[in-house]
Amino acid sequence: MFLLFIGALNRSLDDSIAKIQSELPSTKDPLIPRITEEVPSLRTDSGGSGTRKKTFMVIGINTAFSSRKRRDSIRETWMPQGTKLHRLEQEKGIIVRFMIGHSAISNSILDRAIDSEDAQHNDILRLDHVEGYHELTAKTKAFFSLAVAKWDAEFYVKIDDDVHVNLGTLAATLARHRLKPRVYIGCMKSGPVLYQKSVKYHEPEFWKFGETGNKYFRHATGQIYAISKELATYVANNRPILHKYANEDVSLGAWLIGLEVEHIDDRNLCCGTPPECEWKAQAGNVCVASFDWSCSGICKSVERIKQVHAKCSESPATLWGALI
């Protein structure tokens, strides 16, 4: 009798489990996200096909359709051109590209102008992204995703197109951290969460950061920052579900704060324009990057970047003699 009772009990449990399973949504339902596939671990493969070229760092200079003069001012100062740009890639493993997406209208005059510019300079990386004023966070994700797919780099760097950069000094700075698997390098800050709708950089989701008047967690300022290969791969792999806050630099900080990441606060990545970076250069402490905090970049950069370059640039030997 006891064995019959146990058998009946097992059949009853089996029937209950089957009923519950039949009521659950199917994993094949397209509306149900398959989280196990969308959120992989910190893989270091790109997930794409083909062989990626190994290199030291990939730099994406964020730019817009309307910023042709800014791009040309960078080409005339700190970014090598033509055969020198090719040599920089081959000899030093440093990839430098202006990154830009597409317009909302297919094959628009804006897109054709960028295509023509790229044919001339061969220094533009087109992203799977529709350009828009409030879409910088999505653009940053698109940059890391494409850069990781194309190049197997040790570091991935984002720079704004109104910042002066010394590439050799940047390379030497990053090289000091190349043995660290998950490193996030920049000028770390923690500004107030702006809840007023009328102000620039307003954060609609301010309530997520605590009481009114709270500050953001530490994150690198958006003018220039670098992340190591494993972190860039993490962003690329998890692109569909990484939340976008109002500000791109805050968003990146949010994506990384829950991981085992070493934050490097390096103030040489946020020097002021002359006389600050000039004094440091004269003292032998050349800045990685220079800009004006009041403008979130070099104020009137098209007109002034040549002056900054003349006063604050590294010697050519710093870049071409760098041991990377």
Which key features would you list for this structure?
single chain, 324 residues, Spore Coat Polysaccharide Biosynthesis Protein SpsA, Chain A, two-stranded antiparallel ribbon, 12 helices, Hexosyltransferase, signal-anchor, golgi apparatus, beta-1,3-galactosyltransferase activity, membrane
Largest sheet: 7 strands, mixed
Helicity level: 25-40%
Structural class: alpha/beta
- Which CATH top level class fits? Alpha Beta
The quaternary structure here is: single chain
Give the domain tally: 1
Kindly provide the radius of gyration, computed on alpha-carbon positions and rounded to a whole number of angstroms.
24 Å
What is the fold named in CATH at topology level? Spore Coat Polysaccharide Biosynthesis Protein SpsA, Chain A
| Uncertain residue ranges | 1-6, 17-49
What characteristic shape results from the CA principal axes? globular
Count, helices: 12
Mean pLDDT: 85
Order of helices and strands: HHEHHEHEHEEHEEHHEHEHH
CATH architecture: Alpha-Beta Complex
Strand content: 15-25%
Summarize the structure.
This protein is of the alpha/beta class and 324 residues long.
Secondary structure topology:
Layout: H1 2-23, H2 35-38, E1 53-62, H3 68-75, H4 83-92, E2 94-102, H5 109-121, E3 124-130, H6 136-150, E4 151-160, E5 164-165, H7 167-175, E6 183-189, E7 219-228, H8 229-237, H9 248-257, E8 262-265, H10 276-282, E9 289-290, H11 301-312, H12 316-320
Helix pairs in contact: 3-11, 6-8, 6-9
Pathway: Protein modification; protein glycosylation
Protein name: Hexosyltransferase
Main location: Golgi
